[in-house]
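DM from R.C. (forwarded with permission)

"hey, sorry to bug you on a friday — could you get me a structure for this? deadline for the figure draft is monday and I only need the backbone to look sensible"
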Amino acid sequence: MTAPAVLSEAASVLCLLSIVVMPCAAAGLALINTGLGRSRNAAHAMLSALCVLGVAAVAYCAIGFSLQSYPGREAHALLVGGKPWDWMAAEPLFFRGVSFDMSPASLAALFGMFAAGLAAMIPLGSGADRWRLGAACASAALLSGLVYPLFAHWVWGGGWLAQLGAYYGLGRGFLDAGGSGAIQALGGLAALSIAWILGPRRGKYNNEHMPVAIPGHNAVLVLFGCLLAWIGWTGLNSAGALLFAGPPVRPPLVVANTTLAAICASLAAAAITRIRFGKPDASLCANGWVAGLVASSAACASVRPALAMSIGLVAGALVVFSVEWLEFRLTLDDPGGAVSVHALGGIWGILAAGLFSAAPGQWLAQFTGIATLLGFVLPLVYALNWLLDRVYPQRVPPQGERQGLDLHELGAGAYPEFMSHNDDLWQR
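My reply, with the result:
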């Protein structure tokens, strides 16, 4: 992937405005995760989102950008086959090398601060109702300070995945304009690691190891979160395309593709659940909507709207079946659907960017990126969280989960005038 060396003044202003909109995506995910969880954990879920965003921003400022950087700046490289393979940036800590003068590098630093926070928020969906606040913040620091910037450098900072096109003729190198891989799949694989380490919620599986339905407590929050996420994603994809996709970038096309992919994914989820269950399922339609946003990001600037609609349709269908398969076959308890939406949706978005590209070898560059996510990022993020769990146990004790994280960790509930449901003073 080639990035523009210079942005026009108008493009720089548009990029900045797009970055400013990005926190809406985080707000949307926070509301979705909160609504899909239990009522007695609602305040904890929202505070966790706020704290994780803050910790991620600080970690990225302190360390992250020094590992990620922007194409054309100082970096560490290894000679492989006589060619310099760029593997890690060499920036000063705490943004000391960034002038914040509307240059592409300064805009990329700001974009990265929000993007790292968004990636760190994704595991909150899989750890809902049982993940300690302090552990979530520590995990976010590791993800945003080390894992995210390292992979983002390979994709967006001029690293070796971006060089696949120049060195091996694999299309334009790894293509990921808005972060289907660098943000979404990476965050989704972190969510998978958290779900494995924490284990299922108490009462989720009965004595026959069959899953028990634990519905979310507020569908209105979930669906309103979808609308906020859409606003934020238009900014995320527009800013990413301007900074990382290379010319020519057409922001109206990016917004159209992002919107159409989300709509078609949600409609696909609604149709499938209507056929299978007799009525559309609101939570799966919401997950389909976000999966469409996720899948749209990689190719948001390089495909026509009809192809974006196809990407969304597949993403929505995948989510419906993936949620059920993970729950029944792998006994993976993922209350927010983060693994299906972000990991699977992100991987599909990466693959689609290659399948729908006319550049020779682009699909192989995309496949290399997917292999790197599964073969390097997933083991790394799992190992880091496993070590963290040994030092600082990440799951709340049983009495805390039974009482609710609002009372156990915060001392007050989100809905003090109502009784929290006690539907799981359970079998085990």
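R.C.: lifesaver. Residues 9-200+207-410 form a domain with the Ammonium transporter fold fold (CATH 1.10.3430.10).
me: no worries. Residues 424-428 have pLDDT under 50 and may be disordered.
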